[in-house]
Amino acid sequence: MAEAAGFTVEGNRRASEGLEVVREADGSFARIEDAVTEVAEQLAEMARRTEELSALSRETATAMNAIREVTEQTAAGARDVAARTEEQHAAAREMIAAAAMLSREAELLRAGIARFRIDG
Prior knowledge:
Blueprint: H1 2-114
């Protein structure tokens, strides 16, 4: 019977040790679960921020396309203005040449008229 009592004491001791190991394992699993939850929350936050950055990138691309279109329109307008200015410059040169020719013609007419005398 003493031997049975010894087995009982030894069994109780081993059961206590096993229970302690189970409690430690339970604590470890709880810490692992907390760490997994924290990692999942961080991943969710990263996904949210990535989506925000993606949306911001799309907005930036849209704005850059609008700027490009305005720049192209401005360049086209500038080319049009330059062409019209050149046309006006050519027309002004023609008007100056015509005015110079008319001035010479007027001088010739004055000289021709001066030769005539009106007797009165």
